[in-house]
Design brief:
mainly alpha; 10 helices; 0% strand; elongated; transmembrane helix; membrane; DUF6584
Length: 173
């Protein structure tokens, strides 16, 4: 493939990808990354996801590149290196790894690796998930209730002591 052919956008290239490429050509990698992250928060775009991985890799943010490339079909030494750095950053904590993927990747089903990570994250999150909020009247009191009761008791005790002290001043010996 010639250099010219590799830089020509396909007919399906999104505006965000085109603008990110222009940012890269102008030396604004950080701007390209922000643009791609924003774009991917709203919709799944395989080309933008690949480019985000490339931008992160070029910026030497290997864990971020690994998170982006994990949701793509891209393979190679650079991908393996980045995915390994991503896994190392999160200590193979599947919930954290799942959360670090772009939202559009998490919402899209059909990628075997992403779907497997989703299942693992759900399995590891289930036992540690706090119980759902109970309607008032059920379960134990919350911290705010305990604090309010303690302050009310303190107020009553101070009022009684003040009243007794006042009576002692008023009544003779």
């Amino acid at each position: 493939m010639t250099e010219e052919a590799s830089t020509q956008p396909s007919s399906r290239t999104s505006n965000a990808v085109l603008r990110a490429r222009a940012d890269l050509e102008a030396g604004r990698e950080w701007k390209a990354r922000e643009r791609l992250v924003g774009h991917l928060a709203g919709e799944f775009d395989a080309e933008a996801l690949e480019l985000l991985g490339e931008v992160n890799y070029a910026m030497r943010d290997l864990p971020a590149a690994g998170a982006a490339w994990f949701g793509t079909a891209r393979r190679g030494h650079d991908v393996d290196e980045a995915v390994e750095a991503w896994r190392e950053r999160h200590g193979d904590h599947f919930g954290q790894m799942w959360s670090s993927l772009p939202r559009s990747v998490r919402e899209r089903e059909g990628n075997k690796r992403v779907d497997a990570l989703r299942r693992r994250a759900e399995q590891t999150q289930a036992p540690t998930t706090p119980p759902a909020a109970t309607p008032s009247g059920e379960g134990g009191p919350d911290a705010a209730t305990i604090i309010a009761i303690a302050l009310a008791v303190l107020f009553v005790v101070c009022a009684v002591i003040g009243f007794v002290t006042l009576l002692a001043w008023i009544t003779p010996g």
